[in-house]
Structures are given as C-alpha cells and as structure tokens.
Write the structure tokens for this entry.
Amino acid sequence: MNPAYATGLPAVIRGEEAFLAARRAKRMQALLGGAILLVCLVAAAWVSEARPATLWAGLPRIGEYFARILPDLRWASLFANAETEGSIAFWMYRLPEWTALILETANMAALATLMGSVFALAFAFPAARNITPSGFVYQATRRLLEALRTVPEIVYALIFVWAFGIGPLAGILAIALHSAGANGKLFAEAIENADLRPWEAVRAAGGSWVQGCRYAILPQVLPNILSYVLLRFEVNIRSASVIGFVGAGGVGEELYKVISFNYYEEISAIVLLIILTVSCVDLLSERLRHAAIGRLEAAR
Amino acid sequence: MNTPRASGVMNADIATWRARMPAAFGATPARRALRAVGWTIFAVWLVGSLWWFDITPQRLWAGLSGLGTIIVLMVPPSPGEQWVEILQGMAESVAMAFLGTFMAAIVAVPLGFLGARNIVTATLWRFSLRRVLDGFRGVDQLIWALAYVRAVGLGPLAGVLAIFTADIAVLAKLYAEAIENAEKKQAEGVVAAGGGRLASIRFGILPQVAPVMLAQALYFFESNTRSATILGVVGAGGIGLQIAERIRVRHWDEVAFIILLMIATVAVIDFISGRIRRRLIGAVR
C-alpha cells in the first residue's frame, strides 16, 4: 500500500493524489508528443524513400565509395615526384590548375560580398526602424530584403546563367543578391541599436537625412558592419565553391566534373583544397573580426 | 593644464596644442599615406577582378535585359499541368530536412559529449575530434549531396544523407559548447550522492543542456528546409529537381510558382518551429 495513504492524514493524501494526477498528465503529454514525433518520422521516411531495407543495402556502398575516394598514399614514396604512385605529388598532380580555380572562387566570393554589402548598406538605412524616413519606405525595404534572402543562391544562379551566360558573372551576381538580403537585415538591426544622440545633433544643426546617416550613424556602426561583412565572406566562399555545379564559375565546375566521371582520388584532392581554403579564411576573418569588435569596444 | 581663457586664441597656442595632441588636428602624414596605399590596393584589386571576370557594362546591360524578359515571362506564376509533381517535390524536401536533421541531432549528442572539455579531459583526442568536425564544416551540403548521389543513386535518400552528414559536425560543435557552459554543481551533487559518472552526466548535465540542444535542432530544421529545396539540383530529390528541370525547358511561369511555393513553405515551417521552440523551452525551464 502507498505509504501516503497509510499515514491517514487527509492533507498528505490530497497532496499525494495531486502529485499522481500531475505525473499522469505529464506522462500523457510526453506520450502524445512522442507519438506525434513518431508519426512525423514514419511519414518523412516514407516520403523520402528512406526505407530501412534501402538504407541497409546502401550503407556498404557508401563505405565503399568513400574508401575509394581516399588517396592511395604510401609511406615509402610519400615525397616522391608526380610519376610515382602513392606520393602526394601524384595525388595532387593538377595542383596549379586547382589552385588557380580556388583563387578564382575566393575572388568571386570577395567580389560578391563587396557588391552585396554595398547594396545592403544602401538599403539598411531606410530599413532601420529608428531613422527610416517613413513607415511605407520601412515596410517596402524590409520586404525587399526578405524576398532577396529567401531565394537560395543556386536558384538565382540557375536563372542568371540563362540571362548572363555561363561563367563567373552569373555566380557573382547570384551570391551578391542573396548576401544583400541577408546582410541588409543584419545592418539594419545594427543601425537600430545605434545611439541616436549624434543623429539628433546633426539633424538639429541642419544636416540632411543622408548627412545624418553618414556622420552620425555610420561611424558608430562601421565596426559592427565590417564584422558582418567578414562573416558573410566566410559563408560566401562556401557557396562559391558549389555555385559552379550549375555552370556559374569557380571550382564547383571542376568538382562536378570529377564527381560525375568518378575520378575518385581527384575528388578528395579538390575537397581537401577547399577545406584548407575555407579554414584559412575562417581563421583570418576571425582575427580581423575580433580586431573590429575590439575597436568597437574601445570607441564606447 | 590651464587652457587660454582669453577671447582671442593666439597662433602660438594652436602651435603648442598641435605639438601636444597631434591626433586632434587630423590624421598624421604617415597615416594618410597608409590610407592612400590601402585605397590604391583596393582599387587595383577591384579593377583587376572586373577585368578577370570580364564584367563590362555591355555584358551587364545585355544580361539585365535578358533578365527583364525572364521576369516578364514569369508573370503570372502558374503551377502548370504537373502541379501534383511540384507538391510532391515540396513534401519530399520537407521530409528530407526533417529526417536528416532528426538523425543528425541524435548522433550529435554523444559526439557533443565526447567533444566537451568538462566531460572528456584527454586534450589530444578532443582537439583532433574538433579539427575533424571543423573540416566537415568546410564541405558544403551540395558537395555531400553530389557524392551521395554517386554512392546510393538518385533520389531523396541521397539528400537525407547529405543533410545528415553536413549537420552532424556543426550540431556536435554547438552541443559541445552548450555542455561546456553547463553548471558543474548539479553533476557534483549527483556524484556526492553516490551516483556514477554516467549518472552524473544523465541527471546532472543532460537536463541542463536538453532545451538548448532541442532549440538548436529546431533551428537546423528550419535552415535545412531552405537547403533541402535546392539539393534536387544535383539529383538528390525534392523540389530542386523540379525547378532545375523547368528552368532547363524555360517554363518561367512555373519557375515563379515554385519559387513562391518555396518561400511560403519555408515561412510556414519557420512559424511552426518557432511556436514549438518557445513552447518546449518554456515548459522545460
């Protein structure tokens, strides 16, 4: 028997019953949540054709595929010339071409980040609630930025390849357009957090709206904006590495080719180069960002 | 220091102050030269890149007019005849995102614990695990999708696996950071009451980090719904395949419809996931 009932005290029994009821309700809720989750999972697995049997049959093939991608390196001939099988030079036999392609990719990302950020900066001032000239302009710019960032880069690239022709230009514009939407929102939020006293001073002294943005708001938010721009560059270098899949320039075209033609070892070589580039950019940009934020803190 | 109170400021005073605080009178020549060099490098890079990528006003103008034609053809958006296929593709995309995120969130929990400083004290092991995770992070989801299409064939399964692989690394890193930020006191309390190491993780740390983990997983579901819409471009299932096909045959009105459908679906998923997130986290805390 439950010890709470053994005491015979009505208050203890009431408390115990309330506790049991609460526990029952919580368990029911957990059970219901679990059931909904299970239904969603089964439905998702059914729609995405991820049946256990297919998955089970596919697993060994995945392992086999990734094992074949890995380079065949041997200790004995690791640093031999490009003719010897098993050396690093043999694995990376087209290093100069790939380096050029990766440089092109990085440059595409840089140019796209610059273009997107300039566009974003121009639209961020009217899209900031505290200094926007009118409610209508605020809504219009906000919705425009939202629409720009919701469409993925690849979709822009697919369309731009038709309009601008195959090549890096389509990729740059696609990434720039998406970055403009994403950064415009962040810039506008940075501006909304700015101190408005300098703004009021400039306006009171007869400065126009543009002069107010330039001399009262921009100096305050510039370190913050620079940090967002660098962060976007990190993101964009990843996007630029795949935008070539649809013919929009960069290392992606080469990667698409080697994966489609099953040039196994070249896949790992290019992917490794991409990883190295991305890591280098990440490290560099992290240091620069900390420097920018440090200046922001010092200015306060 | 006494500033000159007289109404007229002497030139000599200005000279004194210029000598004392040069920074207040504008940039020094050295700084100005540095700035000029910086701007020159920037201009050279910009012009060089424009030349490298062959970006000329004529090309931009021709492209923009082509884009104008496309946009005119996009209005009005229409679902076309195969609208069932489009809806199926959209459902496939959402299902791929859900399944991939769910699997990644489950696998990332033990990895997160293994990567956390306060759980695993072997620095070398933790350091190498973190570096491997960082390396995975550098590979875009589309690269994974393309590789999985080669490994398991065309279809949504490749997309699920791509989302799963790309997310494990990032989620495990975020989980490890959440675990490192958890309070030690509860875990110590469990140990003091006679619990083992596993019990202290289960009852001391997991309850603290579970809401954070759940919130992160839901955020990832939202962002994966966005990326699952494009994985089909490389053949990994979902709406991306439909949009790529329609762009290839230039059915721009159907393309516009699919883009609008994508935007609407992402907005709906964001809304639902935001509600769940607020509710679960509010209930747990």
Remarks:
- Chain B touches chain A through 60 residues (CB under 8 Å).
